[in-house]
Design goal:
Layout: E1 2-8, E2 14-23, E3 29-30, E4 32-34, E5 40-41, E6 45-47, E7 56-61, E8 67-76, E9 88-95, E10 98-106, E11 119-126
Antiparallel strand pairs: 1-7, 1-9, 2-3, 2-6, 2-8, 4-5, 4-7, 8-11, 9-10
């Protein structure tokens, strides 16, 4: 499994938290390696400060994966998000070198811009 994460827009205008778990066919948790740091962990947990200036991170699994569960929360730090601060995160998931999932997530300003609430995105991708 390989996972590419790319951020667009002003990452500092948002609070973004990303974590994910990969499991094998027996539902055992698989270690994930951060390609930038070489750190291997089960269930990486990333926040704004974990993203390099390139706004790109990639990960790969240490063993064969049958599914990946992804949890992402995005919330503006300010009440009105301007057009140049619009933040989005694209997650691409590959199994055996083939693109299996490609999704972009963003926080959409509420009407009037008077209040904000976090947006949570939870989904699972399974090898077929």
């Amino acid at each position: 499994m390989k996972m590419d994460v790319t951020c667009n827009g002003d990452i500092q205008s948002q609070v973004a938290v990303l974590t994910f778990l990969a499991v094998d066919a027996k539902s055992d948790i698989i270690s994930i390696v951060n390609d930038s740091t070489g750190v291997s962990t089960a269930g990486p947990f990333l926040q704004n400060s974990d993203f390099p200036t390139s706004k790109r991170l990639s990960f790969h699994s240490a063993a064969k994966v049958s599914s990946v569960s992804i949890m992402l929360a995005v919330s503006p730090k300010i009440y009105v998000t301007t057009q140049d601060q619009n933040f989005s995160m694209t997650i691409k998931l590959y199994f055996d070198g083939k693109l299996k999932d490609n999704q972009t997530f963003s926080y959409d300003q509420l009407s009037g811009g008077a209040s904000t609430t976090p947006k949570d995105f939870d989904y699972k991708v399974t090898v077929n």
